Amino acid sequence: MGSVTGGAAGAAGVRAVARILARPDGRGGTALPVLEGEGPLALRRTRAGGSEAKVMLVGAMSGPLGGDRFTVSAEVAEGARLHVGSAAATLALPGQAKGEARYDVRLTVGAGAELRWLPEQLISVRGSELRMATEVELADGARLTLREEQVLGRAGEEPGRLTSRLTVLVAGRPLLDQELSCGPGAPGGWDGPAVLGGRRALGQLLVVRPQYATRPVEPRLLGEYAALTPLAGPGALVTALAPDALHLRRILDEALRSLG
């Protein structure tokens, strides 16, 4: 089923939740018994091939703004396959409400299931303050492709404050846990040569495959400011810096092709 309802709003900002549940449909495909979005978090099922279901997150309103609280959760049950994307970039904007905005993403993937989480870029607009947290729980044998792209400011604009954390567990064991803060008020050095070096687009591509646990990828450079690194477990991580979103996407797309 699917529904879109209005998110709760008030002096403290908008509260909105989106939920996706994917399960095998018994005919070799994937069903979506839960597809619910509120206010700015509208969900649409789109055409997909094979056994995969595809969902697009469609921004029905501007945001997140200051004080907003957005939560997106997706659960992919054992044997299902789900691809989630977004129709456009997400803009973190300053708002009338004081305080930072929060955007939480919670992903769960069962044994033998696959999730491709490939949203468009997150753009940190001047004057905004956003804390984003992505938490992923994978069962043994789950497959994941997850892309994160962050652009600090629009063209010719200084960024807002952005803090982003990604935590991934496989069968309850940590695979990856990292956090980065950028923009005004972030710890010193975030724009220095040891971190961003003046570049305004940063991204990562996490690929989890069961075979990587015994046959890890070979570490290598993917250009001057990008690298592929094996993780201690069934994962491979690509990290990249670029002058803009277009160059960043090209680097990550090429990395994904190289990983098959």
From TrEMBL:
- UniProt subcellular location: Cytoplasm
Q: Which InterPro entries match?
A: UreD
Please give an example of a GO cellular component term from this record.
cytoplasm
Tree of life domain: Bacteria
**Single annotated GO MF:** nickel cation binding
Asked whether the UniProt record includes Cytoplasm among its keywords, one would answer: yes
Q: Which UniProt keywords apply?
A: Chaperone, Cytoplasm, Nickel insertion
Per the record's keyword annotation, is Chaperone included, yes or no?
Answer: yes
Q: What function is annotated for this protein?
A: Required for maturation of urease via the functional incorporation of the urease nickel metallocenter.
What subunit structure does UniProt give?
UreD, UreF and UreG form a complex that acts as a GTP-hydrolysis-dependent molecular chaperone, activating the urease apoprotein by helping to assemble the nickel containing metallocenter of UreC. The UreE protein probably delivers the nickel.
Q: Which family does it belong to?
A: Belongs to the UreD family.
The record's listing under HAMAP family reads: UreD
Name of the protein in question: Urease accessory protein UreD
Name the source organism: Streptomyces apricus
